[in-house]
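Hi R.,

Here's the input for the FE2/S2 (inorganic) cluster complex you asked about:
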Amino acid sequence: MTDYIVEFVGTDETITCSEKETILSRCLEEGIAQEYSCRVGMCLACTAKIIEGEVEQSIVEKRGFTPEEAEEYALTCMARPKSDLKLERGVYPPSIENDAAAAGSAFGDD
Ligand code: FES
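And here is the predicted structure with FE2/S2 (inorganic) cluster in place:
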């Protein structure tokens, strides 16, 4: 089993994570403040931008990510590393941001 290094840019936080573990589960074990809610790939709260590296996360296109977004963003409750990683927390794909903006305007958020 290979352990990969996952670094969270802009912080001094780093974890090790094997290809059999999800990034979120390792964050929770190590006390890293990765945002999450459902832990089953539904809410998208746990998304992080992939600055460097690759993950296995075949579910993300079914969750509304475009193919490009699936390469650029990790759904950390589902994603398992395929290499060392650099991730930026709190950054969401444009398709999700646009949905949130549309929902805000639907509720008179102006
Ligand atoms: S915690 Fe909900 S999608 Fe990851």
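One thing worth noting: The radius of gyration is 14 Å.

Cheers,
M.
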